Amino acid sequence: MDSFDGIIEFVCVAECQGFSTAAKQLGCSTSHVSRQIAKLEKRLGCALFARTTRLVSLTSAGQSYYQQCRELVTGLQQANEQINAQQFKLVGTLRVSAAGSFAEQEVAPALMQFALLHPELSIEIDFNSRRVNLIEDGIDFAIRYGKLEDSGLVARRLLAHPMMAVASSSYLSKYGTPVDPYDLKDHSCIISNNEHWQFNCQGTPENIKVKGRWKSNNAQAVLEACEQGLGIAYMPQHNFLKSVEQKKLTPILENYWRKDSHSWIVYQDRHFLPLRARLAIDHLIEYFNR
């Protein structure tokens, strides 16, 4: 049985490409991981990792060994998860990265409902807008919006977010109402994530570069600036519905709004995903598609 010592640590270091990151993932010290790997290499009589000051990579022997050990560790993890599933008690901590008004106003309440269903599970949500490294930061999954980069992550569509362009009546009476997206070059636009807005022009996506004197990556700040008459705003329509209903903002350019924007659940492309993450992801998808 001693031959199994260090295998879990080995697989984790191989996937995390670092001892300290693997230790964080396993909830132990870096020195413990290092000792386990050293003992494993001694038993096998070969080096499994090539180490430099900045990088840890598998040797050719380590790569071959990893392919076999990964299946062993995955089988063990799945066996443990099946027992947990039978008892149906989720424990530990679910860590989620999310940002934006949709995450704060919609995703968080959905995860609160999930927490109520699993009283022994802790949930941590990071609303920081920075891009996270899911493995290094110990994140189970992230909520992302818009067009996804080719990052190697698994992405599951969560919800459609049709866009909406709006302005206050005071702004429109003073500067006029644009007839088509190309007119925006003559208007002050409130910029949220970027200065290129994409519209649907006769069935073709068209990127329009806009400018303005108010810029913020906070949806609430964009909304309030628009209500104050600082310019035209263009964001997912759920941000504006209440203000439009209250006549504080007026929809414009309706025929050109994009309808193909989505929010996504993204997670590391691994053979094994913890049960807490799988069930939370399924809960969110069911929650927003019922």
Automatic annotation (TrEMBL):
Entry keyword set: DNA-binding, Transcription, Transcription regulation
Superkingdom of this protein's organism: Bacteria
Domain HTH lysR-type: 10-59
InterPro entries xrefs: LysR-type_TF_proteobact-type, LysR_HTH_N, LysR_subst-bd, WH-like_DNA-bd_sf, WH_DNA-bd_sf
Pfam family, one: HTH_1
CDD domains the UniProt entry points to: PBP2_CrgA_like (cd08422)
Family assignment from sequence similarity: Belongs to the LysR transcriptional regulatory family.
Name of the molecule in the record: LysR family transcriptional regulator
Source organism: Psychromonas aquatilis
Taxonomic lineage: Bacteria, Pseudomonadati, Pseudomonadota, Gammaproteobacteria, Alteromonadales
